[in-house]
Amino acid sequence: MNKQQEIATFLHEPTEEALDKLWEEDELVVWIDWRECEEDIIGYFNEHLAETFQIECEVIEIDKPRGVDIVLTSTEQSMRIPFADDKTDRDSAIRAMQELIAPHHQIRWFKESLGGDTLAFVLLPTGQWDELEQLFGKEKVQFYFQVITNDCMMFDMSMEEMDAEMQARDQARAENF
């Protein structure tokens, strides 16, 4: 079964058993711990991309409190990850990676991992995400697999924000899915 089929199986019947099966799929899920180095995150996603789409990552020491700049380069463009002056962060690294692999691929946050200190992500060609949304509806696919946008908060959520989102998801799941 390919990655898209595995996700389709889960979306068809999103039970605890189906969820457990997805959690165990190393070829599908990219697990990122809140303590990961940003350059390692880029490497994890590269493992799920064909060589022609992989992103080069260069760490440059700088004279700012965060200590480094990270430059990402694809075959089409190059960019510095827009970190705050005082720290690097996983959210910015993931958003920058998404920007560089678009429009060919999409990283999506597997929202069932919300609430943990290790979050799950799935990277697929954009066309496969589109097909899943046609089959199961955009709302359902994005409920489970959130699109990474420029304002997407994943690791930088406060406890209150995370609790509120988890409660809203539980309510939506009970009402819709």
Summarize the structure.
The protein is of the alpha+beta class.
Q: Could you describe the 3D structure shown?
A:
This protein is an alpha+beta fold. The chain has one domain (3-176). It is built from 7 helices and 7 strands. The chain has helices at residues 3-12, 16-23, 38-46, 90-101, 126-136, 138-144, 159-176, and strands at residues 29-33, 56-61, 68-73, 78-80, 105-110, 118-125, 145-147. The strands form 2 sheets. The protein has a 4-stranded antiparallel beta sheet. Strands 2-3-4 form a 3-stranded antiparallel beta sheet, with helices on one face. A hairpin with a 4-residue loop joins strand 3 (68-73) and strand 4. Helix 1 (3-12) runs parallel beside helix 5 (126-136). The longest helix has 18 residues, at 159-176. It is globular and about 50 Å long. The two termini are 24 Å apart. The model has no long low-confidence stretch (mean pLDDT 94).
